[in-house]
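Sequence, structure tokens quoted for completeness.
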Amino acid sequence: MEVETETEVEVEIDTEEIQVQLNRGKKRVRHEHKWKKNIRKKKRARGEEYVSTTGDIMHAKKFQPVECSCPLKCSSKIDCERQAVLNQKFYALGDWSLQNAFLYGQVKVSSIRHRYTKSAQSRRQQSKFYYLGNSNGEDVRVCKEFF
């Protein structure tokens, strides 16, 4: 009977040691909004000046109006002021995923209407049409360069 009591005592001591090891202390709280990498990402998405990972200073985005002379006459449909407003709204979103969603909302994908290639196998399966909102709130089709 004495042997059994000794083993029971050893088991109790082992569990107490495990409890002591588990209660080491409190983990630190992550402040991801203060990380340099995340600050850099947010500034880049907002179009602000930031320092790249290599230490280069990347200047803030500046609006440059697009003058297009394509058959769609994009410049006459959307004037310079509207271009500036669209540019400002895009960078005001401030998040890469929201900006991507905005762009995907402006691009319409449809199957190709005509095949101009004579080969039987063509890799192109769809056409993309780009739209921007004019001052009246209507979506106007523009060329890819203007987009």
